[in-house]
Amino acid sequence: xxxxxxxxxxxxxxxxxxxxxxxxxxxxxxxxxxxxxxxxxxxxxxxxxxxxxxxxxxxxxxxxxxxxxxxxxxxxxxxxxxxxxxxxxxxxxxxxxxxxxxxxxxxxxxxxxxxxxxxxxxxxxxxxxxxxxxxxxxxxxxxxxxxxxxxxxxxxxxxxxxxxxxxxxxxxxxxxxxxxxxxxxxxxxxxxxxxxxxxxxxxxxxxxxxxxxxxxxxxxxxxxxxxxxxxxxxxxxxxxxxxxxxxxxxxxxxxxxxxxxxxxxxxxxxxxxxxxxxxxxxxxxxxxxxxxxxxxxxxxxxxxxxxxxxxxxxxxxxxxxxxxxxxxxxxxxxxxxxxxxxxx
Length: 344
Known about the structure:
Elements: H1 8-24, H2 29-35, H3 52-66, H4 69-81, E1 86-89, E2 105-109, E3 112-123, E4 130-136, E5 146-152, E6 158-163, E7 174-185, E8 189-190, H5 196-232, E9 234-235, E10 238-239, H6 244-272, H7 278-303, H8 313-320, H9 331-341
Parallel strand pairs: 1-4
Antiparallel strand pairs: 2-3, 3-7, 4-5, 5-8, 6-7, 9-10
């Protein structure tokens, strides 16, 4: 079906991004995977490599909605140029999807908050210059006691742990962060004290839509590569796509992707109109990420032995895509949100 959510300027922008990635990302990605980190030279071009979605899609709305004029003057020039790389730290070793279970604390002391605790699985954790940290400023107030503080590179007591050794997404630095009596100025409070949990909940639908859309785009790319392979690869005297089973698998994938694309495009339009609901965003996130994993798994099978070789993109997609059903809220949490909305 013809997509109708993009105007000409959207298509021009998409073409520009594709050209940028082809020139500035693809030729260097193998090295970044080996280094387990993207070169900071990417920042000069306004991107942070494979972690740019965290910087732009996730963190951008927090600064846009919550930052004061003074904070905007301090942080946004570098943020917009890409010279300042950002991260957001919510997940803790003992608190993943349950944000209310976080233990990191920030105690007011004069003109500072004294921050103590640890975070894990933080994307851009090694490279970040600013990190939005969710912490408890009032341990007795439940979710109303959570605030957001912006911690800056070089603040005494702010330490980065190891760059975590993941199954996939090797070029994306993902880290442990530690805070030992870090004195964060009150001027680095993002939004209101005690308003952190609400801010997180307000931004999560956009984040989950972005994750879903990214997963769907990845699935579509793997499918296109696999379809081309099935038309070229010969077995028993004919293209492997000509065998009925393989043809049916490809037909199933094409249909599933088309259905998911229609739903995701509708969610994008609703988000732009300010009407995307939390349950609908959860549906997009769990459906598109789970679909991506199913599509990639079937595509690996169609590639046969070559699909298990890391020199083939489908093999890297097999490990890279798996985590999408976990970060941003697990599939199980998404179903819980949807189920509660049904009154169950």
